[in-house]
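Entry 14. Structure prediction run on the chain below.
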Amino acid sequence: MDSTPSPSSSSPFDMVSSALGKYLPRGGAAAAAGSADPQDDSAARRRTPADPPPGRQQQILGRQEQILGAVNLDRDLRITLCNLDAPVFAGVEAVTGSPFVDLLPPGDVPTVTRRLRQVLETGEPHVARVQRLRRSDGSELVVSLSILAAAAPQEGLTVTLIAMARRLHLYAAESVIGTSLDIGETAQSLAESLLAWGDVTAIDLDFAVWTGEAVTEHPQGRIRLRRAALVPDRAWPDGYVTPGDDLPSDASRLLSRAIRRDDAAQAIVIPDRGAIERVLGSARLVRALVPGDQAAGVACIPLVLEGEPPVVLGVAEVWRRAGHPFEDSELLDLQELVARTSHHVDLARQHQREHTQVLALQRRLLPRSGGDTIETASVYQPATPDSAGVGGDWVNSFPLPDGRTALVVGDVVGHGLGAAATMGQLSMEARALLSAGLAPDEVLEHLDETVALLDDAESGLAAGYSALGSTCCIAVYDPVSHRVALSSAGHLPPVLVRPDGPAGPVAVSPHPGLGAEFALREPFDVHAFAVPPGSLLALYTDGLVEDPALSIDEGIERLAGTVSAVHPWDALPQAARRVVSALAPAHRRDDVTLLLARMIGYRKGDTATWRLPARGDAAARARTLVSELLGQWRTREDTRHRVLLVVDELVANAVRFAGGPITVRLIRTGHGLLCEVGDTGNGRPRMGGGGLLDDSGRGLRVVHGLTTRWGVRWTDTGKVVWASVER
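Output returned:
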């Protein structure tokens, strides 16, 4: 006698537990199936007091057998083994050898097939999808469908089906909907949960909700709705409103009036196709709102934010085919689910608003362009919307008044508006201090004090947010000497690619982040290095190089290899985007920031430097040297006269108030001439009051009147006074 069991004789728990064995610790699958031997003393000793006794366990399994089914599929997605013997699956005809998709409504076949193929290819399970199954009498059963890779030695998939009671589904759906802070994903989760009550569901949100703005009551007829979610995922006919589309204005007014009858938001039901067409009033609206010829009834449930007065965030639509009217109990369930999840939609709106505001600030801080001596390009990609929020990463590059260029990158601790406010403050402070002539290490000292001050509870500035541990890296490029002076406060080292050498990180001395305790503070180091013309410098934040599968050093090596592949003739903006595309993770939990700088510098013929002793004839000697050079450059006579007066005054001041050797440098820029006079003094030059007998500072007043801009920068050996003269 043949003792081979029938294909449906295996318990669904046996089928499921064997598939789960791949994901559970050893013995976990057996425990899940309730197969532990009660005679095994060691098993009894391992059982915790919280575990149900064997008899009680069998009662629980018996109840679950009434709603659990399982189906095994081969790699062609055909049924090889099934157990749908529970009474709840009556009418669902799963035939061995037939395609699994025969159990699905035709519109759901593409989406479910794609999910099945993904699990086959990746082995990653797909769990708890709300799905409908077709019964032989034309009705449908709503189940929670999960897809697992089949346990060895079998190949293929194990599909579990749990037919949940609608009330149980109601509470399970609520817990799923609130797991994302992205408003699109929140709306999509709500639409998928509502599918248990209909054939097609859609979520239409007030445009202000979609953009994150504050929602207020609108005058009748002025509301604007945008479709945020639509399920199932299928090809829809032309003219039908799909996610991202605005509803026609007359449809928005119609839905607004319908749900606000008697000045109160309430659900409405249009029971049949004829009534729908009469209410919509035009074939264009029918094409835009009715999902196919079979749709015959719709329930519209408002998403209401409780308050005084209540505010309508949008409308949930549940569509059904003919012959399936909405019962009162179903409408109560629909209204309860939508009411329970409206606050999740509003939380996502608030998160979207904060995300938009921070992103606008981030974009505002991005560098606009390079200059004549340096080419820059930057890429900023914010964290994905469902993360904790846009972070405090920032990057900037700007020309300094004395002809140099500053490159700054920072990463403020935390996310959201607090991090954005601190980021903006540090960025603007760094720019102001660098423009005032401070060296990178001095700027970091000031930023360090600022972060410590912001964290001082007694100052009242912290407001519940701490920026301690924020990082920053500042590089200043001198296009005449072709050198970079760099200081870092706990930031990852920049990557340098020289035209004649290998790519690699710059050797930066380690230093704590900004705001460290006073006892831990050390002076910031300045690392100076040569950057020949054509060199490429990459500054970035950790979101670009962090990968759970790699160490941070390996991530930096990947960046160096990618940047070294940038050709000298490549357009820098496109090259920066390629680098980020190659390295940045698809789902970003942190901001990704990159600044590429290609060094150009001045040609030798555009600069000249002289070193003079601090003697009484220094000014006359400087005038002679500069005059000869201006003649070679064929400078206009009026410009030449102004430059000679400026050089004379600056050198005379250096001899009078400083001492030591004097350095004179003249630079021909794209728009004019830059005069620099360096000395060993540490006093700050100031213009005098201009009185008749006040001789102090009169030379600087002359310089002020002849130039477009002048200033001072500090060096290790003294200072440099510079002045810009237009040609």
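DSSP finds 19 helices and 25 strands in the chain.
Filed with the rest of this week's runs.
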